[in-house]
Amino acid sequence: MFTKILIANRGEIACRVIITARKMGIKTVAVYSDADREARHVLLADEAVYIGAPPSRESYLVGEKIIAACKQTGAQALHPGYGFLSENAEFAKRVEEEGIVFIGPKHYSMAAMGDKIESKKLAGAAGVNCIPGVNSAIESAEKAVEIAKGIGYPVMIKASAGGGGKGLRVAYNDKEAFEGFTSCTNEARNSFGDDRVFVEKFVEEPRHIEIQLIGDSFGNVLYLNERECSIQRRHQKVIEEAPSPFISDATRKAMGEQAVQLAKAVKYQSAGTVEFVVGKDESFYFLEMNTRLQVEHPVTEAITSLDLVELMIRVAAGEKLPMTQADVKREGWAMECRINAEDPFRGFLPSTGRLVRFAPPEQTMWQGDTEHLYGVRVDTGVIDGGEIPMYYDSMIAKLIVHGKDRNDAIAKMREALNGFVIRGVSSNIPFQSALLAHPKFVSGDFNTGFIAEHFSKGFVAEEVPHDDSNFLLALATLVRRKTRELSASISGQLDGFSVTVAKKYVVVTLGAGGANVYTPVHVDDYVGSTGSARVIVDGQVYDIQSESRLNAICHRGMVNGKPFTAQVEAGTPRNPLAWRVQHNGRRIDVQVMSPRTAELHALMPFKAAPDMSRFVLSPMPGLLVSVAVVPGQKVQAGERVAVIEAMKMENVLFAVADGVVGKVLASKGESLVVDQPIVEFV
Asked: Is the pTM here over 0.85, yes or no?
């Protein structure tokens, strides 16, 4: 067995590998860029080696620097994680040539399966069903349009070396095919150094289901059940679960056996995943093979009680798989939510900056631990006070739960999300909560178009359903009253000027554009222990018990005999007197007032925000890649104005109305902040 390995990655996956290596008694080496000097993976590893500037093309994508770090530290093996160089066959070959063991598949298997065009040809030769399309690189946008028309819309335009939703577009007409080819080519070139693009038929209403594989150097390949990955936004997975609520045991077996057959055809070793698109009738077609560890591997670990990272290391060290196909378990139900640094209320735009507060829910399952199951696990590469840089992907953490069945897993996940505190950057936690509460998701009736169908106009906090929205008002009132009680208990107050604790309040729910809602609330004397009260809202009675500290963001307790976890905090970005309450995906801003104060508040005029409609503003922090207009140019609605790159994704800004450019206020290569003006129209 190895005594020291290097992890050629960053973030949560680097931490994940380090933890299993430590369990196995193996020392670890981290690598880091300038942006990651104080990152969690650097702190966890036994050693760390600096490899360059923040852009990945100057650090994590420079294979020679990674190999040099191995030699410098005496690392015998290298684990690539996922992303970056993990599926680069040439890099894997170079590593092996230098006498370093690559903890992953052999370079020839990676080359065969890592190229999406060649892998489809191999899959077809192996008897695996493939989707109709043109499996050869397309040389121009015009040719892409011609091919797409021949196949029939809709089509999927994909980068051959793509992954993680990058270098991928769905086109429904000639214009989208032309623009999609251009964007895919640029993204693929910037992210993978390979701008080859191909086109295939897009199967409508599909399920995205993948088979986890593990193989050794003795010719043994096993399938470790499937993962349901159909909940996606912009082709990036949002929620993954195992098993799938859709396929039958017969389909599971057939998919698994085909995946194994394909893996054996390329002499596959290590962990890998074969992805399928599955139709309504459970017919399935090969999409691609990911020759690496997947982001969503923890859900497989939960239902099988296997440590996939440990198996990868043992296989790379020449050991035989310790089990047969008959030994593979499938117990309980696991789910994973990807917690990303993005603002769901602003079109899911990237959010970078310092994590002022990072407090995940309490864990009862841990990475590398296959004994403690049926609980909550958090995989992350960040710490409280850490930085979310703009150079890498947006993932903050992965939240994993394991339940006895699917309903139990959903309930565990919703409660865990309620208690996940992230401040300083925006996160998609409210959106994840809303997805889990959607009746179609709960029933298992969904496909890859679920988010596009049910959230076609974006995500608006006010539109998120809540089983009992009055509970949010009751909780805000209770917390506000407890602060009054604390003030009233301070000694030395002057007679006639002391703080009094009232029973009658009005909760003002602050709406957009000054559309506020005023709700009378009554609070009775305590009915239980300290921290308890009976709160009455619109005739509904809420007996609430909570021992949470007043300065705590996360409040836990009981309401009418049932446990709850919610977040309540004083002050919002626009109103220091307001209270923000979050529960089950619903977020509201309220002010808790006396009845007389509420009367006066209703008379206050609403101050509208300044009109910025003549400006094109940067919707996110990022790098200004290009500006497509010049002063004096006439621009029509829908025309490209600028391109911003953030978290490895290219974001195109279009004009929303006809106009004439007055000034260009930002330059190519400039680092932008949120709402920074780029172009001004006259």
From this structure: no
